[in-house]
Design brief:
Helix 10 crosses helix 12. The strands form two sheets. A five-stranded antiparallel β-sheet has the order 6-5-4-8-7. The chain is mainly alpha-helical. 30% of the residues are buried. It is flat. Pfam families: DUF6350. InterPro entries: DUF6350. This is Integral membrane protein. Keywords: Membrane, Transmembrane, Transmembrane helix.
């Protein structure tokens, strides 16, 4: 038995495309039909206008201006629109998965737009037919279609962006640093929204007497409930107005004007959410709200400085973030405002909002970024310091690569070998003279090791060019190191000798049973690497020898 999955199938399936095209629209239509019918029943209105009411509510959800009794209202609640955006985004995200071709992405976007446009066309036809019977007006068709396409296209893009943003960016040749700019812009807008919500909640708590008095004007339980629901639907509009005030812009609702520096009281509609408006002069403690844009700007500046080490890329990202944030906040506030019938205009001064937001983030953010780069310790600064230290090496230590090579190039490698019968040396040979391949007198070779006396220490024997590397000194003791003027190539100590597994049946080179002539012939055939190791040990004997 086949069990049908609970999630929608990948895009390209007819059922998924049908859900994208008609799912959110059908849910919205059912909700507005139920709400409209309940309002008409509670107000004892004629149900003959139910279809026109539902059509008007459908247009209002998409922010299309509504005209009733020759009064046009364009300040429409944003809460239903926000919920519709969330629903469209979720359906589109569920119907897609990463790795699908862009052709199917275009199909999903077209389906997300086609269904709502069809419903908007039907709603316009119903409203136009009801204008001869009821006191409703037909909105401009072009504006209605544009608002509908904009709402559903924005919701679809929000849902598809996490999976397809980078692929579309590569197709349009958008640089990858723009990803961080978009993220910073979204965070800044969210911070302003949260600050506006906090201001509204605090003002409602302070003015709770006024809020209760406005709710009681509903004349009964149903009226009080409707006023409460209406206030909740307009909550995002008031939040955006409060967020605009924090940057220094002015806001007004008809005759009432408010800002951080002044206020003008007046008569407003009896809606409980409007109790947040000032009833007199603006108190001086409202100036503390200027910390909101300052905090947002500091946060943006710190994030930009943490990603880049150079100044110009930081300023470029910061200015672009400020521009996008100011434009986004102004656009959302413009949608939230408009004409409120006979009361007048309601909303925020858009030129002031755009200019002040851009100035706060660009100027304060730039100062913060420069201060962080100069005095702070960011990821980019730490990464740059690590790369510089890796190139320059540890400070205060000299290495052989930094000094002149003391080995005489005139002497071919391997020209000095053990003489027949010479005793095996376990120390490091060294001396103040140059390496020479000429043979020494035979009495030195025949002289037993016990008869040899170490040369007395003398300052003149020490070379003036001290190239010793202190980090190269291992745990080996220096008591056995003694200088000698006879350059002898010897086997390196066991700790530094390359790992060589002896053949089966043979003994190591230092075993007492091996003939001296055989050892000499073996030393003559050693590689150039052993000679270099001997020269390095000779240099160390200058400094650490007895």
């Amino acid at each position: 038995m086949n069990i049908r999955p609970a999630r929608l199938r990948p895009m390209g399936d007819a059922r998924s495309l049908f859900a994208v095209a008609f799912g959110p629209s059908m849910v919205t239509l059912v909700v507005v039909a139920v709400v409209g019918t309940l309002v008409m029943v509670t107000q004892q209105s004629d149900l003959a206008a139910a279809f026109a009411t539902v059509a008007e509510l459908w247009l209002a959800v998409h922010q299309v201006p509504v005209t009733v009794s020759d009064i046009t209202v364009s300040v429409l609640p944003l809460m239903p629109t926000v919920l519709l955006l969330a629903g469209v985004a979720r359906v589109c995200r569920t119907a897609t998965r990463p790795g699908r071709p862009l052709s199917e992405l275009r199909t999903v976007l077209l389906c997300a737009i086609a269904g709502p446009v069809l419903f908007t066309a039907i709603a316009l036809a119903v409203v136009n037919d009801a204008t001869g019977t009821f006191t409703v007006g037909t909105p401009p068709p072009l504006a209605a279609f544009l608002y509908t396409v904009g709402v559903h296209l924005l919701g679809a893009l929000i849902g598809l962006a996490p999976a397809y943003w980078r692929e579309i960016g590569d197709l349009l040749r958008i640089p990858r640093w723009m990803d961080d700019v978009v993220v910073d812009t979204a965070r800044a807008l969210a911070a302003f929204a949260v600050a506006g919500a906090a201001i509204v909640v605090v003002r409602l708590a302070v003015q709770w007497h006024t809020v209760a008095a406005l709710v009681e004007t509903g004349n009964g339980g149903v009226g009080m409930f409707c006023l409460t629901v209406l206030s909740m639907l307009y909550l995002p509009n008031v939040m955006l107005g409060a967020a605009g005030i924090t940057v220094g812009a002015g806001a007004q609702v008809g005759p009432v004007a408010a800002s951080l520096f002044s206020a003008a009281p007046g008569q407003v509609p009896a809606v409980p959410i409007l109790a947040v408006l000032p009833g007199g002069e603006a108190p001086h403690y409202l100036l503390v709200l200027l910390l909101v844009p300052a905090a947002v700007a500091v946060s943006v500046g710190r994030r930009c400085a943490a990603r880049e080490y150079e100044v110009w890329p930081v300023l470029r990202a910061l200015v672009l973030t400020a521009l996008l944030t100011a434009a986004g906040l102004a656009a959302i506030t413009w949608v939230a405002g408009g004409e409120l019938g006979g009361i007048g205009h309601a909303g925020v001064d858009l030129p002031q909002l755009f200019g002040f937001t851009f100035a706060w983030i660009a100027l304060v953010g730039a100062l913060t970024a420069l201060a962080v780069q100069q005095f702070g310790d960011t990821r980019a600064v730490r990464a740059t310091r690590r790369s510089e230290e890796a190139v320059a090496g540890p400070a205060g230590y000299a290495t052989y690569s930094d000094e002149a090579e003391p080995v005489d190039d005139e002497v071919p490698v391997g020209s000095v070998a053990h003489r027949e019968g010479a005793p095996e040396e376990t120390g490091v040979a060294g001396g103040g003279g140059e390496l020479d391949g000429a043979a020494e007198p035979d009495d030195h070779a025949a002289e037993p090791e016990s008869a040899r006396e170490p040369a007395p220490e003398s300052d003149a024997d020490e070379s003036d060019d001290d190239t010793g590397d202190f980090d190269a000194v291992s745990d080996e003791p220096t008591e056995d190191l003694r200088p000698t003027r006879v350059p002898v190539v010897v086997d390196p100590p066991r700790a530094e000798r390359p790992e060589r597994r002896p053949e089966r049946g043979t003994r190591p080179a230092l075993s007492a049973g091996r003939p001296a002539g055989r050892r000499a012939s073996s030393a003559a055939g050693r590689s150039g690497r052993d000679q270099v190791v001997s020269d390095v040990e000779e240099l160390d004997s200058y400094t650490f020898g007895e």
